[in-house]
Design brief:
about 0% strand, about 250 residues, two-stranded antiparallel sheet, elongated, mainly alpha, single chain
């Protein structure tokens, strides 16, 4: 018994597999080291089976040069789509790192065994909480649907350069704005504490403001952190929507 497979479908499967593999390497939450490699591979293969015929229909030239060019286009498309989600999702961790810097917890940065990078306490806490919220709001389903939609929109990975540059520019502004918005309530409280400590230092120069300030800012942070985290699910959902829109906007089609 011989299994007959159309060459175009096989080529389409390979192209989608390359694109999906590049996408899962960088796109949250699938890029987390805690997710086994076999799960990522299974997800990439499943999506490749689903979209192979659609991509194969768009393949006109089966020559070596054309296929190599198509592979590079698919890798770039997958990395860019995943990068938009990764960058905006990093705003959550960045907000925690900004708070660590203001309070003084950044001096306690330790090696994160999951990412392999140095991570501050509040930054790592925000990152883990953001991933948990992402799963709770079915964010993994949303990003998977965004990948499928990107393949339907640009089966061969065609990228509109003008749109890509505009989206990358908007990405930077959105990233910084989102990080500040998430950390703003606590930053405001810490700024007021800094002012109060400054006046106290002028009124009583014999006091050790450095020691008192660290204790006071730590207490303020832990007291208000729970109240600010209530707003984090809405922020994560909003960031995810922006990331998907910006990522899909770079494709021609």
């Amino acid at each position: 018994m011989e299994l007959q497979v159309e060459p175009t479908i096989l080529v389409g499967f390979c192209l989608v597999l390359v694109r999906a593999t590049a996408w899962t390497m960088i796109c949250p939450p699938f890029n987390a080291p805690s997710i086994p490699v076999r799960v990522r591979v299974a997800l990439s293969v499943a999506m490749s089976f689903l979209l192979a015929e659609r991509v194969g229909e768009q393949v006109g030239d089966l020559g070596t040069a054309a296929l190599v060019g198509a592979l590079f286009s698919q890798i770039l498309a997958g990395l860019l789509l995943g990068f938009f989600v990764f960058a905006l999702f990093s705003a959550v961790q960045m907000a925690g790192e900004v708070l660590d810097l203001q309070v003084g917890f950044s001096m306690g940065a330790v090696l994160d065994p999951l990412s392999g990078n140095n991570s501050t306490p509040l930054g790592r806490f925000h990152q883990l909480l953001g991933i948990a919220i992402l799963f709770a709001i079915n964010g993994h389903v949303i990003v998977a649907r965004a990948f499928i939609r990107s393949v339907e929109q640009a089966p061969l990975g065609d990228i509109n350069v003008d749109n890509a540059l505009a989206s990358l520019t908007g990405l930077l502004g959105t990233l910084l704005m989102a990080a500040i918005e998430i950390a703003l309530p606590l930053l405001t409280a810490l700024f007021c504490a800094e002012l109060a400590l400054g006046f106290l230092g002028k009124a009583a120069p014999q006091l050790n403001i450095l020691v008192i300030g660290f204790a006071l800012k730590s207490i303020i942070t832990f007291m208000l952190l729970g109240a600010t985290l209530v707003l984090l699910p809405e922020s994560v959902e909003s960031l995810l929507g922006r990331a998907v829109r910006l990522g899909l906007g770079i494709f021609a089609g």
